[in-house]
Amino acid sequence: MTAIPCARLPASMSRATCVHDTWGMFDKKAQAEALILADEGSGNVVDTDIHGVDWDHHKFILEVRPAGEDSFRVETKAKVPIFSHPHPGDLVKVTFDPKNHKTEIQIEGDPRYDPKLIRASEKQQRAATAEALLNGAPVPGAPGIVHRVDHEPRWKVPATCPECGARVDQPTESMADHPACLYCAKPLPCEPVR
């Protein structure tokens, strides 16, 4: 929408219909990734949404890493789902004000924390499992059936990624063919387990 200054309104328009286009004027937020350094705990305020998801207010200490700029540390509050909230070592998407560094964690759209995406993923997994079973897949964990599963780790991997500092999912990456950081996709240093 293009704003028309009130002083130059056509005679057919009154001052009551004058619209000042200020959208975006105060909305100068930048996006970045941030590393959760600490979860300072709950603010003891719990809301429940219409889907039955309990939301809690947490205070986090973050290291914000804007592209092409120096990183900075900041404390921020965020409304997060109780059962799927960020933890120290997690990399998250944030928006921040470059002037005062006021930062907001973006829960919506993150498949690890967004309850809507988690519900959709679980529904899809249930449908895929049902479809596989209906098409003759073996029943997982059925009595009398012995499945040999190798649960021994193949690799020793670090607890944090040396490239980006994100927490490494050690149980998963120690079993992977090629261990890599989930967040920056760089290969992880690893040693074979003997």
Fraction of helical residues: 10-25%
Arithmetic mean of pLDDT: 80
How many strands?
7
Percent of residues in beta strands: 25-35%
| N-C termini distance | 66 Å
Provide a count of the helices: 2
Main sheet?
Answer: 5 strands, antiparallel
Numbering strands along the chain, what is their spatial order in the largest sheet?
3-2-1-4-5
Structural class by sheet pairing and helices? alpha+beta
* Shape type: globular
Computed CA radius of gyration, to the nearest angstrom: 24 Å
Order of helices and strands: EEEEEHEHE
Spans of at least 5 consecutive residues with low confidence: 1-7, 12-25
Describe the structure.
The protein has 194 residues and is α+β, with helices and mostly antiparallel strands. Among the domains are: 30-116, no CATH class; 153-194, no CATH class. The chain contains two helices and seven strands, in the order βββββαβαβ. The strands form two sheets. It has a five-stranded antiparallel sheet with strand order 3-2-1-4-5, with no helix packed on it. A two-stranded antiparallel ribbon has the order 6-7. β2 (54-65) and β3 (72-81) form a beta hairpin. The longest helix has 20 residues, at 115-134. The protein is globular and about 60 Å long. It starts with 29 loop residues before the first strand and ends with a strand. Residues 1-7 and 12-25 have low confidence and may be disordered.
